[in-house]
Design goal:
- The protein is α+β, with helices and mostly antiparallel strands and about 325 residues long.
- It folds into two domains: about 80 residues; about 230 residues, Bira Bifunctional Protein, Domain 2 (BirA Bifunctional Protein, domain 2, 2-Layer Sandwich).
- About 40% of the residues lie in helices and about 20% in strands.
- It is built from twelve helices and nine strands.
- The strands form two sheets. The chain has a seven-stranded mixed β-sheet, with helices on both faces.
- A hairpin with a 2-residue loop joins β6 and β7.
- It is elongated and about 130 Å long.
- The two termini are about 80 Å apart.
- It binds phenylalanine (PHE).
- The site of phenylalanine has 11 residues, from β8 and β9.
Length: about 325
């Protein structure tokens, strides 16, 4: 039996096969177990002799099984390790890393500048809806019924009373209705106009509105704030120029130019040789607008401004076609 077991164990290739051998000899009905069970039937003088042989054989089988199992596992481990061998000279897999969109980086920079001056940001859909009442987009901003921007040629109407906002200025009114002065807010958001797509126009683009309302707010405060903003965004030597302009919801109104950051004002391709770049519209909030929003123009005054984020990002990064901002071509985005 010993040599038979030894032979079977030497042929076994897996722990499962070893287990079968164990059951065959040492299990409840195993061959050796049967012998041990039959001990009682032997004459008394033979029992110790046979018992000793049987016990030795049992020890032998158990030990052989343990050491055979060990060497099988060791062999399996070596086989696994050789299969898992890593070739450290293989080229690695390159993980593509995401990039921030130039509009996002520019907006974050602008937000930071105004946060630093004590403004807060209004951009929730509840406080700054893109689907807007005609009342907020036009009526409450003092824009007369016959104004060209109210034409269906220029704005996207959903019905007579509802329009996709054509500017972020309606949020001026919503903010003043909700909040008593002092008010200092920045409103970044998407706006919509019925423009044909070309290098400088898109039916969807982005504006950043600013509104300050308090006692004794003057045009000097507007100039100070926008001057500080322009120096932070475009560099410390940047100068601003206020040109008289017209918006129905501000009086007086101005368009604001900054010295060209590319040439410092000497004149170049970026500023079409003028040395100046127009970046925003602004003015003192019209008393009629304050009044319609529930703020007493005899007590309070305010200023507002609005700038095009897309245009500023294009200027900052030297992007010459607005469509690139919306196509999400990775070859373009990856450059920032
Ligand atoms: N809403 C104006 C526009 O879209 C810009 C503006 C905002 C002008 C605030 C004055 C004050 O052209």
């Amino acid at each position: 039996m010993r040599s038979q077991v030894a032979q079977e164990i030497s042929k076994a290739n897996s722990p499962e096969e070893l287990e079968k051998i164990r059951v065959k000899y040492l299990g409840k009905k195993g061959l050796l177990t049967e012998i041990l069970k039959g001990m009682g039937k032997l004459p008394p003088q033979e029992r110790p002799v046979i018992g000793q042989i049987a016990n030795q054989l049992r020890d032998y089988i158990e030990e052989s099984l343990v050491s055979a199992k060990k060497s099988i596992l060791q062999k399996e481990k070596l086989k696994r390790l050789s299969e898992e061998k890593i070739d450290v000279t293989m080229p690695g897999r390159v993980k593509s890393v995401g990039k921030r969109h130039p509009l996002t980086s520019t907006l974050d920079e602008i937000k930071d500048i105004f946060l630093g001056m004590g403004f807060s940001i209004v951009d929730s859909p509840e406080q700054s809806p893109e689907i807007e009442l005609d009342y907020y987009n036009f009526e409450a901003l003092n824009i007369p019924k016959n104004h060209p921007s109210r034409d269906i040629q220029d704005s996207f109407y959903i019905n007579e009373d509802i329009v996709l906002r054509s500017q972020t200025s309606p949020v001026q009114v919503r903010t003043m209705e909700r909040q008593k002065p002092p008010i200092r807010v920045i409103v970044p958001g998407r706006v919509y106009r019925a423009d044909e797509v070309d290098a400088t126009h898109s039916p969807i683009f982005h504006q950043i509105e600013g509104l300050v309302v308090d006692k004794h707010v003057t045009m000097g405060d507007l100039k100070g704030v926008l001057g500080a903003f322009a120096r932070k965004l475009f560099g410390p030597d940047t100068k601003t120029k206020f040109r008289p302009s017209y918006f129905p919801f501000t009086e007086p109104s101005a368009e604001v130019d900054v010295t060209c950051f590319a040439c410092g004002g000497k004149g170049c391709r970026v500023c079409s040789g003028t040395g100046w770049i127009e970046i925003l519209g602004a003015g003192m909030v019209h008393p009629a607008v304050l009044k319609m929003s529930g703020i007493d123009p005899e007590v309070y005054s305010g200023f507002a401004f609005g700038m095009g984020l897309d245009r500023i990002a294009m200027l900052k990064y030297g992007i010459d076609d607005m469509r690139l901002l919306f196509e999400n071509d990775m070859r373009f985005i990856e450059q920032f």
